[in-house]
Design a protein that fits this description.
The structure is a single chain. This protein is α/β, with parallel strands linked by helices. Helix 4 links the parallel strand 3 and strand 4. Strands 2-1-3-4-5 form a five-stranded parallel beta sheet, sandwiched between helices. It contains five helices and five strands, in the order E-H-H-E-H-E-H-E-E-H. 34% of the residues are buried. Bound molecules: 1,3,4-trihydroxy-5-OXO-cyclohexanecarboxylic acid.
Length: 146
C-alpha cells in the first residue's frame, strides 16, 4: 500500500515557526518518524511539501494510479482553497485531513475547512502525534476496503 503525505504552506518552517503552537519538531523529524511507523506497518510513505497551491494540486493529480490514500496538512489552504478541494475530489483518493494544532480552539477563520466534509476523517490538535493518528486511521480505513 502506498500513502502520500502532503504538507502545505509554511510547514517547512516547523521547528522554528510559532513553537508555542506548533512545537519544536521539524518537518524532517516528523516525516522520518512517520516513514518509520508506516514501513513497520507494511506501508510505503511518500512525502511532499510545497508552499505553492498549484504544486500541491499537481502532486495530488500525480497520485492517481500511484497512491491508495493521502494524508494532508494543507496549512492555511485548508481554510481558503477550493482548488485543493476540487483536486482531492477529482482524483477520488481517500484522504485524511490533519493539523498539529486544534484549529477549532483558534481564530474563527480557522474553524472552516474546505477539505473536511469529503475526508475519511480529520485529526487536529495532537501536535506531531496528529500525523501518526491520521496514518493509522487512514490505513485502517483502506484495509477495511476503503
Ligand atoms: C495548521 C493549522 C492551520 O490553520 C495553519 O494555517 C497552519 C498549520 C496546523 O497544522 O495546525 O499552517 O494546518
Amino acid at each position: 500500500m502506498n500513502v502520500l503525505l502532503i504538507n502545505g504552506p509554511n510547514l517547512n518552517l516547523l521547528g522554528q515557526r510559532e513553537p508555542g503552537i506548533y512545537g519544536r519538531d521539524t518537518l524532517a523529524m516528523i516525516e522520518t518518524e512517520l516513514t518509520r511507523e508506516a514501513n513497520a506497518d507494511g506501508v510505503e510513505l511518500v512525502c511532499f511539501q510545497s508552499n505553492f497551491e498549484g504544486a500541491l494540486i499537481e502532486r495530488i493529480h500525480q497520485a492517481m494510479g500511484e497512491s491508495q490514500g493521502i494524508l494532508i496538512n494543507a496549512g492555511a489552504y485548508t481554510h481558503s482553497s477550493i482548488g485543493l478541494r476540487d483536486a482531492l475530489k477529482g482524483v477520488a483518493i481517500p484522504y485524511v485531513e490533519l493539523h498539529l494544532s486544534n484549529t477549532h480552539s483558534r481564530e474563527p477563520f480557522r474553524h472552516h475547512s474546505y477539505l473536511a466534509d469529503s475526508a475519511v476523517g480529520v485529526v487536529s490538535g495532537f501536535g506531531p502525534k496528529s500525523y501518526s493518528l491520521a496514518l493509522s486511521g487512514l490505513v485502517h480505513h483502506l484495509r477495511q476496503g476503503g
